[in-house]
Amino acid sequence: MNTYIRHARPDDFLELTALYSLPKVIAGTLQTPFPSEARWRARLAESAESRRVLVAVVDEKIVGNLGLHIEANVRRRHVGGLGMAVADDFHGRGIGSALMDAALDLADHWINLSRLELTVFCDNAPAIALYEKFGFVREGLLKRYAFRDGAYEDVITMARFNLSP
Fold first, then answer.
1. Phi, psi at residue 158, to the nearest 5°?
2. In this structure, which CATH number among 3.40.630.30, 3.30.70.270, 3.40.50.300, 3.40.50.800 belongs to the domain 3-117?
3. Pairing mode, if any, of strands 79-86 and 115-121?
4. Phi, psi of 13 (to 5 degrees)
5. For residues 56 and 61, what is the distance between their CA atoms, to the nearest angstrom?
6. Are 61 and 14 in contact (CB under 8 A)?
7. Is there a contact between 92 and 83 (Cβ–Cβ < 8 Å)?
8. Does the predicted TM-score (pTM) go above 0.85?
């Protein structure tokens, strides 16, 4: 499987709309069913220094996405937030690890972020294991954090620290 990571381009909006339409992606993220092509087109068209949008590509098809959002508040500019999704048929095939490798290299060696944070649904054991593999630690539990498939669900907050200069 030939996988590579690159920055998302404005013309990726159709593939990202399709990715965020998949059942496991919807269940594992804060996205809702039936994403709008117009919303993805606008999101990719706007340029922001505080956001990096990476995609994982296999055989010229986008199979994963990771957003790295840098805090705007001057007192929290050392912090980035992560959100990611992997296509349903590509779980367990190294796509999440490839996205995390690229994002952590960017955060640690180019943007100089010392704290990365994320939330993950408590029932998403594979994602939790992935984040722990990359040095994220559990910081807390947020009860009834998000409404998903007719019920309120809890999430775990996790963070990773880069303490090198």
1. -135, 155
2. 3.40.630.30
3. parallel
4. -60, -35
5. 8
6. no
7. no
8. yes
Residue 49, pLDDT above cutoff 80? no
Sign (positive or negative) of CA dihedral 102, 50, 137, 64: negative
Where do the structural domains in the chain lie, given as residue ranges?
A: 3-117
Between CA 160 and CA 8 the distance in angstroms is 24
pLDDT in tens, 101-141: 999 999 999 999 999 999 999 999 999 999 999 999 999 99
**Alpha-carbon gap, residue 58 to 15, rounded angstroms:** 12
The Cβ of residue 46 has, within 10 Å, a number of other Cβ atoms equal to: 9
Backbone angles phi, psi at 138, to 5 degrees: -75, 130
Q: d(Cα 130, Cα 96) in Å, to the nearest integer?
A: 7
End-to-end Cα separation, the chain, in angstroms: 36
Spatial separation of the C-alpha atoms in residues 37 and 109, rounded to whole Å:
33
- For residues 35 and 3, the answer to whether their CB atoms sit within 8 Å is no
Place 157 in a pLDDT band, splitting at 50, 70 and 90: very high
